[in-house]
């Protein structure tokens, strides 16, 4: 039996952040799709079957918050969980309903991957 | 009250330090590397990069972390380990047990920088490395299509280190003159190892040129490589700067080991004070030091002779000849002698050796024989006085009673002067040893020029070097006669104060 790999969309305007997180998540066994702003992320969401979105809060064209709102307006995307990341985002800022977790940058991959697995593979996490 | 939002950001941006375990380096970095940051250590071949890189790995593992030493185009792991095995930090049991050695050249050659980055990712995650050294970054530069590609690689490596909290050190065979290259501008810290040539002397140095996120000690510091591994010797005046600790001042007096000298001092040397014994070569200064250390050892006060000229065997022999039991005191841990040629080390390495030994034996008394050793060790003569100021300040804070000897170029008279300008203002006590020419016979005088915070005998006394060491006349009468006769003699011969031959 083949286990289907989960697909994660990462949206971040910071080149290294995007590339390295993609490298780490690919290495951890996930399929990764990338986008460098909210608009591009929406396009990728329409083209792929995405299981989780990890998005930066501050991005050009369309920021993470607006991306979440646009996803909530679409029945096909509203159920996809989102993780927010930001170097300056504060936890007290209202979060869209689909945001499940927030991580300050610099991200610590060890902590992030635990949350990702809890969201995508809850049965394997016990 | 602090804003909880600000607190949250502060917590997010908290800078965690990881001590290097390399003696002196953490002091220069003021706490060690920043965890998850990336550093470039550069230097020409032979400056100590590989030794430092390996030592950093071993120390990291010894302190509970996991480390990987990754090579590109460098010597084989077997050759490298063979060369390192005599170093004190080397511990074969740690290899493949917390410390791994990985060759990554093939990944670089076959898949260029992307392949190398993937290799680093695998190593960090698979080996769970919290410390990574990449030795020989030059091949990565050569494999980069252009500067932008290399810059991208370094930024990605930096991000990978930060995200995995793995501190990364790149070793590069280059110097600060190439410091405009992409890898220099992108890394979190730049450290240069170098050789500094001073005529025929060569000193190893280390300089932290850039260190993001925290202040560090600027400037070049001495670096030593021995069987103990790499040790950094920060400039003493900077190391001790700001250590505002009160000096002790209990007014206790310590015997010098010469009863008449104690009487001239009205009770001996004040504890924690510093004295200079100034005089011509062979005038009895070192002997005074031996009396002083011997008297301390007899009172169970450990003492250190920090010397540049007399070998340990000669010192013991000299002590034996005048009835001092230095060997016996040494066996009981009450006397120690550190001896080194002045050209072997720079000032800071000397300072570290001295303070380490003072600490090790719990010294209460110290004799430095002589100041000239420091002067000759200094590659920047103008620094000598700053160094000695810092050293004496530290000794005072540690409540150590110190005698420094200093040699004059003239045996007596007003031309006698200290060879390191400014010393007399730094010390509490000043003893003058003089020779006076009396024709076929030389006569010796000792006087106390100053003793801060205490009255003292103001007249010179005659003294003799005998089988019991220094013996001082109980009063000033013979000294007065000597001075009168010397003036008379000089007037007749117009040949004042010539030193005796063979002294």
Your description of this structure?
The complex is a heterodimer of chains A (126) and B (503). By secondary structure, chain A is an alpha/beta fold. In chain A, 36% of the residues lie in helices and 21% in strands. Chain A has a 5-stranded parallel sheet, with helices on both faces. Chain A is globular. In chain A, 35% of the residues are buried. Chain B has a 9-stranded mixed sheet, with helices on both faces. A 9-stranded mixed sheet of chain B has the order 16-15-17-18-14-19-20-21-22, sandwiched between helices. Chain B has a two-stranded antiparallel ribbon with strand order 1-2. In chain B, 46% of the residues are buried. In chain B, helix 5 packs parallel to helix 7 (147-164) and helix 14 (347-361) packs parallel to helix 16. In chain B, strand 4, helix 4 (77-84) and strand 5 form a beta-alpha-beta unit. In chain B, 37% of the residues lie in helices and 25% in strands. Chain B has helices at residues 4-12, 25-29, 49-62, 77-84, 105-126, 138-143, 147-164, 182-186, 236-239, 259-264, 285-298, 312-321, 326-331, 347-361, 371-377, 384-397, 423-426, 477-493; strands at residues 17-18, 33-34, 38-42, 67-71, 99-103, 131-135, 167-172, 189-198, 201-211, 220-226, 229-233, 253-254, 269-270, 274-279, 303-307, 335-339, 365-369, 401-407, 429-438, 441-451, 461-466, 469-472. The termini of chain B are far apart. The A-B interface holds A 15-17, 19-21, 23-24, 27-28, 87-88, 90-92, 104-110 and B 5, 8-9, 12, 36, 117-118, 121-122, 125, 152, 155-156, 158-160, 162-165.
């Amino acid at each position: 039996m083949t286990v289907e790999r989960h697909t994660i969309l990462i949206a971040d305007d910071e080149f290294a952040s995007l590339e390295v997180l993609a490298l780490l998540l690919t290495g951890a066994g996930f399929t990764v799709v990338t986008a460098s702003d909210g608009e591009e992320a929406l396009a990728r969401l329409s083209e792929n079957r995405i299981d989780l979105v990890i998005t930066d809060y501050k991005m050009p064209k369309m920021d993470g918050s607006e991306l979440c709102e646009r996803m909530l307006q679409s029945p096909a995307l509203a159920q996809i969980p989102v993780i927010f990341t930001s170097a300056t985002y504060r936890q007290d800022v209202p979060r869209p309903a689909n945001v499940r977790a927030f991580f300050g940058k610099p991200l610590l991959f060890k902590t992030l991957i635990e949350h990702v697995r809890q969201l995508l593979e809850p049965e394997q996490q016990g | 009250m602090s804003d909880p939002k600000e607190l949250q950001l502060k917590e997010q941006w908290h800078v965690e330090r990881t001590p290097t375990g390399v003696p002196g380096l953490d002091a220069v970095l003021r706490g060690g590397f920043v965890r998850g940051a990336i550093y470039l250590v550069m230097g020409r071949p032979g400056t100590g990069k590989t030794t430092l890189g390996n030592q950093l790995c071993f120390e990291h593992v010894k302190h509970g972390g996991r480390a990987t030493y990754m090579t590109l185009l460098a010597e084989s792991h077997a050759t490298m380990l063979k060369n390192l095995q005599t170093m004190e930090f080397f511990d074969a049991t740690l290899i493949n047990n917390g410390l791994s050695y990985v060759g990554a050249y093939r990944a670089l050659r076959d898949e260029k920088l992307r392949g190398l980055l993937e290799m680093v990712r695998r190593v960090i995650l698979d080996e769970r490395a919290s410390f990574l050294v990449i030795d020989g970054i030059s091949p990565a530069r050569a494999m980069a299509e252009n500067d932008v590609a290399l810059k991208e690689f370094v930024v990605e490596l930096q991000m990978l280190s930060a995200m995995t909290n793995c501190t990364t050190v790149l070793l590069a065979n280059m110097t600060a003159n190439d410091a405009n290259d992409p890898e220099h501008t992108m890394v979190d810290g730049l450290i240069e190892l170098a050789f500094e040539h001073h005529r025929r002397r060569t000193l190893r140095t280390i300089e932290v040129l850039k260190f993001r996120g925290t202040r560090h000690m600027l400037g070049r510091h001495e670096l030593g490589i021995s069987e103990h591994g790499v040790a950094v010797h920060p400039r003493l005046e900077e190391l001790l700067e700001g250590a505002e600790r009160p000096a002790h001042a209990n007014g206790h007096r310590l015997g010098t080991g010469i009863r008449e000298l104690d009487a001239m001092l009205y009770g001996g040397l004040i504890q924690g004070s510093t004295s200079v014994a100034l005089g011509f070569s062979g005038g009895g200064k070192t002997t005074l030091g031996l009396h002083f250390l011997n008297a301390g050892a007899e009172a169970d006060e450990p003492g250190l002779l920090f010397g540049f000229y007399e070998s340990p065997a000669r010192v013991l022999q000299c002590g034996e000849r005048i009835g001092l039991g230095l060997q016996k005191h040494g066996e009981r841990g009450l006397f120690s002698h550190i001896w080194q040629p002045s050209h072997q080390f720079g000032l800071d390495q000397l300072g570290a050796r001295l303070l380490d030994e003072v600490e090790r034996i719990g010294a209460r008394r110290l004799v430095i024989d002589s100041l000239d050793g420091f002067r000759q060790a200094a590659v920047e003569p103008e620094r000598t006085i700053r160094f000695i100021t810092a050293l004496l300040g530290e000794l005072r804070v540690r409540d150590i009673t110190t005698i420094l000897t200093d040699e004059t170029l003239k045996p007596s008279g007003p031309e006698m002067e200290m060879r390191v300008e400014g010393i007399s203002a730094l010390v509490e006590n000043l003893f003058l040893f003089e020779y006076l020419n009396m024709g076929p016979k030389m006569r010796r005088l000792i006087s106390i020029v100053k003793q801060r915070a205490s009255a003292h005998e103001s007249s010179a006394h005659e003294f003799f070097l005998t089988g019991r060491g220094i013996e001082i006349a109980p009063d000033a009468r013979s000294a007065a006669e000597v001075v009168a006769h010397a003036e008379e003699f000089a007037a007749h011969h117009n040949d004042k104060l010539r030193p005796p031959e063979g002294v």
